[in-house]
Every structure is written in C-alpha cells, then in structure tokens.
Design a protein that fits this description.
By secondary structure, the protein is mostly helical. It has helices at about 1-25, 60-75, 80-85, 85-105, 125-150; strands spanning about 30-35, 35-45, 110-115. The protein is built from five helices and three strands, in the order H-E-E-H-H-H-E-H. The mean pLDDT is about 90. The longest helix has 27 residues, at about 125-150. It has one domain. Helix 1 (about 1-25) runs parallel beside helix 4, helix 2 packs antiparallel against helix 4 (about 85-105) and helix 4 runs antiparallel to helix 5. It has a three-stranded antiparallel β-sheet with strand order 1-2-3. Its EC number is 3.4.23.36. It is found in: Cell membrane. InterPro entries: Peptidase_A8. Keywords: Aspartyl protease, Cell membrane, Hydrolase, Membrane, Protease, Transmembrane, Transmembrane helix.
Length: about 150
C-alpha cells in the first residue's frame, strides 16, 4: 500500500505543478488568438460550463469535501485504489489544482477557448486531465468486465 501511495502522490504532485505552471503563464499575460481557438484568460466561478456558479464561495468548500471524501473512500477501498491508481491520482490531482485556483484566484483559471463553428466552454489542462481520468476509469471497467466474461 505504501508503494501505491507514493506513486499516487508523485502523479498527484506532477499534475498539480504542471497545471499551475501553465495557468501562471496566462496569469502573467500570455494571450493568443487563432482561427479555431484562442488562448485567453478567464476565471470560472462555477464548474463545467459555469454550472453551480450561484453557490458562490460555498462551491469551493463543497468541492473540497468531495475531494477529501473520494480520497478517503479510495484509501479504504484498497482494491479499487490499486486497480485505478493512475486514473484516480490524475483525477484528484487535477481536481485539486482547480480547487486551489478557487482559493487563490476566486475562480478556476481557464484559458483554452474553442470558437470555430461553435463556441465551446473555456477550459484548462486540468479539465482535460479530469476527462481523461474518467475515460480511463470507464475503459478499465469495460475491459475488466470483458475479461471476467471470458473467464466464465
């Protein structure tokens, strides 16, 4: 379990450091406008697509509780933690980085804005990592179910 926790913490820290470093580039003033997408700076006070923005300051505390509860659940569900270690460390690292933004900047630092053919929500590296982690978890469950069906 200690080896798994060390791996978890290493991935968690790597995601947070990389995400915060990228965000700092935009906070320091970097901008770029392209035909398909632009790199801008915005602060999202809600979650995906600005949902739950009405919760204001309470949103960050709700997210903090959710992240802590998820982590504690994983610690007690050792098999789930071990089987999805990389995905959960990516998920919790990226979620924690976005949460850190809420405490430091008052909202999540977003910067990628797709605007060709349609306008998409502005997002960041952590958002991509969160979606990738969820994809990994779902993929692992499907592959495990397929393996279990073959073994029967």
């Amino acid at each position: 379990m200690i080896k798994s926790l060390v791996k978890f913490v290493a991935i968690f820290i790597a995601v947070m450091v990389l995400d915060q470093a990228i965000k700092q580039i935009f906070i320091d003033g970097f901008r770029w406008n392209g035909e398909y997408f632009s790199l801008i700076l915005t602060y999202n006070k809600g979650v995906a697509f600005s949902m739950f923005e009405f919760l204001g300051e309470n949103l960050k505390f709700l997210q903090l509780i959710l992240i802590v509860v998820l982590f504690l659940y994983l610690i007690f569900q050792k098999e789930l933690f071990k089987n999805h270690l990389i995905a959960f460390s990516l998920l919790i690292g990226a979620g924690s980085s976005n949460l850190l933004d809420r405490f430091i900047h008052g909202g999540v630092v977003d910067y990628v804005f797709w605007h060709k053919w349609f306008e998409f929500a502005v997002f960041n590296f952590a958002d991509v990592i969160i979606n990738f982690a969820v994809f990994l978890i779902i993929l692992q469950f499907f592959l495990e179910n397929k393996r279990l069906k073959k073994s029967k």
